[in-house]
Amino acid sequence: MTTSLQATGGDLYGAGSQREPANLGDILERVLDKGLVIAGDIRVNLLDIELLTIKLRLVVASLETAREVGIDWWVRDPWLRGTEDTERLEASDHKQLAAENERLRRRIGELTARQPDDAHAGDDGSDDR
Amino acid sequence: MSAVWVYAVTDRDAPLDVPGVRDEPVRAVRHGTLTAAVSSVPLDEFGREPLHRNLSDLAWLEPVARAHHAVVTRVAERGPVVPLRLASVYRDDAGVAALLAERADDLTTALGRVTGCTEWGVKAYAPPAPPPAEVATEGSPGARYLAQRRAERTARERVRHSAVDLADRVDRTLRPLATAYRRHDDRQAWPAESAAPVLTASYLVADDRRAAFTDAVAGLAATDRVDLTGPWPPYSFAGLDET
């Protein structure tokens, strides 16, 4: 069977419709995480797709973060430095926690300074017991 | 010694004038009406053990992923395509032909499903949370503190609700324009303060509805951050067992 082929709509994926060359993160998201996996007659086989997918999630997660802050993420290897990336991902959480912690310390300080008055009032109340 | 890298399956006898992984020429393996686009890869780099190692190396992975995508896209330009997952490596052409024979019905069905369609990726992002308002300036410090916490909680809830609303609105708007769709995000896992998209979805869009679809996304993007990528070969719709 050799049906020769007319290009159908050569512009389908062409430069005319593509706004910009596809971002590596977008490509990885598809070629690694989507696409048909055939478990049939794979002899030489592959790899553990599951493990690869987990690694991908780390990459894509750091890509999202990197895109937000405009980092050239690919100069580093996020798979080898997963912990560092995780730290970076959580940095904003840490900052928020630290700020809340600071606020609570201040609060406790103020309340402790008022403690004598409050305690006295409490003693007054306890006389009625 | 070499093995066979499979890019995609199509039902067209497409000209394969695009370099494959490691610049190897792409050739066709045929069975019946089906054609697999393949190329040879050296086993010392693409065998099980080295491949596993190499896939963890982004510097190795990038050109391979781009080459894979380029071939899949080239095939897709010429007709319906079922893209294979990256690193589908077979021992030889006969193994690929056997695969085509064995899964001929499924593959033909999958090709029928994506004929005349392209995939579009959509990500919607929640608006950034406003800074927590300074509420009460009078009253006891304790009362002020509680009011402050209450205001923060309310603000967080409001952001969360508007994010969920946005995701629903995007999906409701786009789904009727699509032949099929896949939601990739996990709504349960979405944290209120995260920069992660509140909606990550792929839509399979018929070519004659493409303009309507991209217009609809542009409409949504006028008021919210809604990112569109595409057109893609139908990576997210390549499954054999879906209806």
From TrEMBL, chain A:
Protein localization: Gas vesicle
Keywords in alphabetical order: Gas vesicle
Any one Pfam family match given in the protein's UniProt record, by short name: Gas_vesicle
Listed InterPro entries: Gas-vesicle_GvpA-like, GvpA, GvpA-like_CS
Cellular component terms (Gene Ontology): gas vesicle; vesicle membrane
Claim: Secreted is one of the keywords in the record: no
GO terms assigned for molecular function: structural molecule activity
Region: Disordered, residue numbers: 108-129
Protein family membership: Belongs to the gas vesicle GvpA family.
The protein, known as: Putative gas vesicle protein GvpJ 1
Organism: Actinocatenispora rupis
From TrEMBL, chain B:
Subcellular location as annotated: Gas vesicle
A Pfam family that the UniProt record links to this protein: GvpL_GvpF
GO cellular component: a single term: gas vesicle
GO biological process, one term: gas vesicle organization
Alphabetic keyword roster: Gas vesicle
Superkingdom of origin: Bacteria
Main subcellular location of this protein, as a coarse class: other
Keyword Plastid: no
Keyword Glycosyltransferase: no
InterPro entries: GvpL/GvpF
Family: Belongs to the gas vesicle GvpF/GvpL family.
Descriptive protein name: Gas vesicle protein
Species for this entry: Actinocatenispora rupis
Lineage: Bacteria, Bacillati, Actinomycetota, Actinomycetes, Micromonosporales
